[in-house]
Backbone:
């Protein structure tokens, strides 16, 4: 009964922990989103990290009309650049509220037409198809102002994913020794149980 209760609590914890921050690097290599294809659940956050002194942005678009903003919903980060080293201290965070495909592009100059596009939860509409029709788009449109997400410091959110990815293995590598210690405890318990059985056996034999 207690075991079942523990399982239920464990499952609840897992369900809570399920929403994740999905890091997408912008301009890490020229005219790219990395990754440019990803999957996300409702409740996850897309977190765009901007690189390079060249300006970039991210705009949610419609599959049918590449390099122009989504007609409903969507988001726009505004333009970001860096001093040339590292990433911009600010990130753009977008709460995912659908499992439908979300196409997005960079609206700076001809970056979209030149293939700086990405997608979350692609379906039958592929990124390759979006990219190829973007190549012949007549221009790239930036919405009038930032919307659909939050510009925030990367401090908490960017260093957490990177340090948690690097510290997570450390945590799990420290976990086995302590589990091993527990194992040893269980082992000595087992040994004493076996010796107890032996003693009982001996006692039986002696009768
Ligand atoms: Cu760009």
Residues:
């Amino acid at each position: 009964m207690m075991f079942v209760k523990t399982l239920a609590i464990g499952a609840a914890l897992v369900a809570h922990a399920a929403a994740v921050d999905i890091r997408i690097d912008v301009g890490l290599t020229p005219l790219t989103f990395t990754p440019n294809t990803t999957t996300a659940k409702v409740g996850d956050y897309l977190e765009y990290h901007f690189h390079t002194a060249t300006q970039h942005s991210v705009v949610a678009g419609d599959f049918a009309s590449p390099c122009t903003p989504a007609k409903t919903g969507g988001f726009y980060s505004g333009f970001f650049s860096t001093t040339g080293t590292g990433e911009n201290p600010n990130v753009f965070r977008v709460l995912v509220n659908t499992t439908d495909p979300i196409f997005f592009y960079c609206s700076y100059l001809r970056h979209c037409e030149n293939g700086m596009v990405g997608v979350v939860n692609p379906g039958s509409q592929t990124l390759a198809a979006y990219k190829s029709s973007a190549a012949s788009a007549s221009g790239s449109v930036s919405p009038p102002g930032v919307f659909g997400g939050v510009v925030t410091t990367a401090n908490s959110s960017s260093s957490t994913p990177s340090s948690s990815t690097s510290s997570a293995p450390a945590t799990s590598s420290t976990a086995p020794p302590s589990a091993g210690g527990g194992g040893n405890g269980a082992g000595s318990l087992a040994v004493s149980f076996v010796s107890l059985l032996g003693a009982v056996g001996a006692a039986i034999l002696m009768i």
Observations:
- The helical segments are 2-17, 127-134, 154-206.
- The two ends are 40 Å apart (CA to CA).
- DSSP finds three helices and ten strands in the chain.
